[in-house]
Amino acid sequence: MISLAGRDILHSWGKFVLTGVGLGLLIGVTLTMAGVYRGMVDDARMLLNNSRADLWVVQQDTQGPYAEASGIRDDVVRTILGLPGVARAANVTYLTMQVRSEAADVRAMVVGFEIGQPGFPGAPGYLVAGRHITRSHYEAVADVKTGFALGQRIRIRRHDYTVVGLTQRMVSSGGDPMVFIPLKDAQEAQFLKDNDAILNDRARNAANPGLNRPGVPGLLEAIQASQASNHNVNAVLVQLRPGFEAEAVAEPIRRWKHLEAFTRAQMEEILVAKLIATSARQIAMFLVILAIVSAAIVAFIIYTMTLSKIREIAVLKLIGTRNRTIAGMILQQALGLGLIGFIVGKVAATFWAPIFPKYVLLEPGDAVRGLVAVVVICALASTLAIRAALKVDPAAAIGG
Amino acid sequence: MTGRPHMVEPGIRIEGLSKRYGEGSAAVDALKNVNMVVAPGEVVGLIGPSGSGKSTLLKCLGAVIEPTAGRMVLGGETIYDNGWRIPDLRALRRDRIGFVFQAPYLIPFLDVTDNVALLPMLAGRPNAEARARALELLNALDVGHRAHAQPSELSGGEQQRVSIARALANRPPVILADEPTAPLDSERALAVVRILNQMAVQHQTAIIVVTHDEKIIPTFKRIYHIRDGRTVEEAGQGLSV
């Protein structure tokens, strides 16, 4: 027996291919949406991997430093280092801001880390160009997605920095590329007030009789000095000695140091299940809507194609064609359309994914799930046309 | 056929066939006690005005609607007998009845050969055997040279010859032709009638041709007039075509 569906597709291949391309672009968008979600999850995991930490010590009752603001004193790191099981610990600051350059502003996460100790938690992992930061101030290492070049001058708050190294796949959970600068500079950028505000505060303190007492020399100067300096960081990243359980080290930090400590699993839970949960639901809604739209398009196309063949279907039924042969023809056409659409969609998504500003991760598993969904959607969409075809009266082929 | 006498009778035999649409006061008797006999190898005409019951009779014979009463025998097999009907109407239409329509209604996405070979394929014949049979018929009908053409590439006369080949593909004992010459000019219409007569004799097929076509009515040796659901038989001229 010949394939009626195959012959029909070959006969009107132009219409089929054009329709398949249109459907394919829609499927491509659907696959890309799934890729955007996968990219967000992967960015979150990369953020954790690149920090090279086993524990994140943050302000008590916060879920910082990525999901919430956290501030702890920078000398806490010394206390942490004294705990059993802690191999290395380092202060770190994170600040998402506009980094200015001559060309344009770039949305970036500025990371302050303790320089001079390669492999330390919080430091940029590997460079694709240039060198690591060696000076204590005004040097930066940037992710290539910032678009900055080696030697370029960038401005962060009140100071200019020279880009001395470029790294790759160092992004925040929101997909913003990272710019690494020395910790002291980052603390200043994050916490220090501008000159006008400092002058204003000094004047207010001097006018305050409680702070500027004639009988207590040096009090006002001490207060002014404390307000003009900053010793806060967002978190302490901790690496453990081999053989120590993260939870076992975290527990005394929580109990005795009045800080919050998250293990890798807990931090991943915060990033994936909480921080990007709303975005994930948003994308899921898009996926559902796109699936419904795809189903409606396939159903409409197959239905109109079937209606245009009503007379032929009546003849086929009159000359003894089984209902299942006719239903099979329509089903195969719907699946053929879906297959063309899927191939076009997969190729389109593969080509346009790298152009997206945020990371789009197209996983083979998602492609397989997408193919299964397309097959199911096309099969369901063809039922309307099959129902119409099976209702055709073979008598319609005879007489008036 | 379980429980029914298997009567071997030739061609087409219709006895007391009636068809009523609707019920009660709204009932319409489309066919009233129709009797008709067509021998194998014979081509008879069925003529009548619009609404006389021609299409209803053809649909009853084509096993697409069920009569209200009477008896129908096609190719020696009783297909309807006062409320009883053969169970597998689809197989009956496929294997024992050939259809030729007013328009050829060829399947546009199959080439000429496969349009004809489709019926044997549907009957379970191997593709090669079905295509060989199709080519044999197409050659006999003088359209063998268009075997690989698409239906849209054929002239009206060629399309109608292909549809006759399709009707003959499963060697049915009966062919029902519904105004097969309507879209054709005189020359092509007479050519179609000549082919039907040749095929009837050659394949010992009983053929009923429903027609309004004045050009071909004289070519039938026997004609059934149908008016108000009743048939009247009369001799035709049976002119040589």
Topology:
The complex is a heterodimer of chains A (400) and B (241).
Chain A: H1 4-11, H2 13-51, E1 55-58, E2 72-73, H3 76-81, E3 86-101, E4 105-113, E5 127-130, E6 139-143, E7 153-156, E8 159-167, E9 178-182, H4 183-191, H5 195-207, H6 219-228, E10 232-233, E11 235-240, H7 246-256, E12 260-263, H8 264-275, H9 277-307, H10 310-318, H11 323-352, H12 364-390
Parallel strand pairs in A: 4-9, 6-8
Antiparallel strand pairs in A: 1-11, 1-12, 2-10, 3-4, 3-7, 3-11, 5-8, 6-9, 7-8
Chain B: E1 12-21, E2 28-38, E3 43-47, H1 54-61, E4 69-74, E5 77-81, E6 84-85, H2 89-96, E7 97-100, H3 112-122, H4 127-140, H5 156-168, E8 174-178, H6 186-203, E9 206-210, E10 222-227, E11 230-235
Parallel strand pairs in B: 3-9, 3-10, 7-8, 8-9
Antiparallel strand pairs in B: 1-2, 1-4, 4-5, 5-6, 10-11
Helix pairs in contact in B: 3-4, 3-5, 5-6
The proportion of residues forming helix of chain A, as a percent range, comes to 40-55%
The backbone outline of chain B, from C-alpha atoms, is globular
What's the quaternary structure here? Answer: heterodimer
Secondary-structure element order of chain B, as H and E? EEEHEEEHEHHHEHEEE
Spatial strand arrangement across the major sheet of chain B: 7-8-9-3-10-11
Q: Give the strand order of the largest sheet of chain A, numbering strands 1, 2, ... along the chain.
A: 3-4-9-6-8-7
**Main pleated sheet of chain A:** 6 strands, mixed, barrel
* Major sheet size, sense and barrel closure of chain B: 6 strands, mixed
Order of helices and strands of chain A: HHEEHEEEEEEEHHHEEHEHHHHH
Q: Helices and strands of chain A: which structural class?
A: alpha+beta
Low-confidence parts of chain B lasting 5 or more residues at pLDDT below 50? 1-8
Distance between the terminal alpha carbons of chain B, to the nearest Å? Answer: 41 Å
* Overall average residue pLDDT of chain A: 89
Shape of chain A: elongated
Please, what is the average pLDDT of chain B? 87
Number of strands of chain A: 12
Rg of chain A: 31 Å
Strand content of chain B: 25-35%
